[in-house]
Q: What sequence folds into this?
């Protein structure tokens, strides 16, 4: 426990160096657009405040799962270790390294949704556009990261949030409560983020009896199998896969649809 706390207190550049990651971080370099935005939105908190925020947000999110602000706060105050592991997996992938270098964003100003809708129906891009329309959701609804000090980890958390609907799409899951819980299990096992485990466990506890039976019999075994066996999903450069056949993409990643 002391060793883990000590590592958390180190600057991220030192932590990365100890892990022998291949990316070289210059001592000083101009901030990119995301870093500038994050520095304006970031809220500095002490370790004790981080502990209080983590505990308080977990209780608030448990009492009311609709409190997306509390869920976001929980993810930021408890997810640093998992984000470092995600960084490892992205550095190990050529595709992941390009994401870290370019820091793409997913929202209605960066994605041409008219173009996606015009793609073949079985393409990943068209499937994603249809998912958004069918479920009446927008990629603009993700909250900014405020409680992570390091801009690189803040970007990884931002990337996770903005890719959530893409994961729904590739898993073939709508946005109802039963599907959300199943997707959270896949995310938890694939990323290791504590908030995903919390959402999966406590979300399942709120299911109605009829849905709980379906969850235990079909959704949970399916989610665990996918979560354990699919390739790491954070290093996937989804925006460069729009034209790929969605069935081929699922096969590449090792994803099996719920039967």
A:
């Amino acid at each position: 426990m002391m060793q883990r706390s000590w590592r958390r207190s180190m600057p991220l550049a030192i932590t990365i160096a100890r892990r022998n990651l291949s990316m070289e971080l210059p001592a000083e370099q101009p901030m990119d657009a995301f870093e500038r935005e994050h520095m304006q939105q970031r809220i500095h908190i002490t370790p004790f405040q981080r502990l209080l925020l983590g505990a308080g947000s977990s209780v608030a999110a448990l009492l009311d799962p609709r409190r997306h602000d509390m869920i976001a706060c929980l993810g930021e105050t408890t997810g640093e270790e998992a984000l470092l592991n995600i960084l490892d997996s992205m550095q190990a992938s050529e595709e992941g390294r390009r994401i870290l270098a370019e820091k793409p964003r997913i929202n209605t100003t960066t994605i041409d949704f008219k173009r996606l809708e015009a793609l073949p129906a079985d393409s990943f891009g068209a499937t994603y556009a249809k998912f958004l329309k069918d479920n009446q959701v927008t990629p603009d609804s993700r909250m900014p990261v405020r409680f992570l000090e390091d801009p690189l980890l803040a970007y990884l958390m931002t990337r996770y949030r903005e890719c959530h609907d893409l994961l729904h799409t590739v898993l073939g899951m709508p946005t109802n409560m039963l599907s959300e819980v199943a997707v959270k299990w896949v995310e938890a096992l694939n990323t290791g983020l504590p908030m995903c485990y919390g959402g999966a466990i406590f979300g399942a506890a709120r299911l109605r009896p009829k849905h709980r039976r379906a969850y235990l019999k079909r959704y949970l075994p399916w989610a665990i199998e996918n979560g354990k066996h699919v390739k790491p999903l954070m290093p996937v450069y989804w925006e460069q896969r729009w034209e790929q056949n969605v069935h081929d993409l699922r096969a590449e990643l090792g994803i099996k649809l719920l039967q």
Summary: Residues 1-11, 13-23 have pLDDT under 50 and may be disordered. The two ends are 42 Å apart (CA to CA). Residues 182 and 223 are 5 Å apart (CA to CA). The chain is about 65% helix and 0% strand.
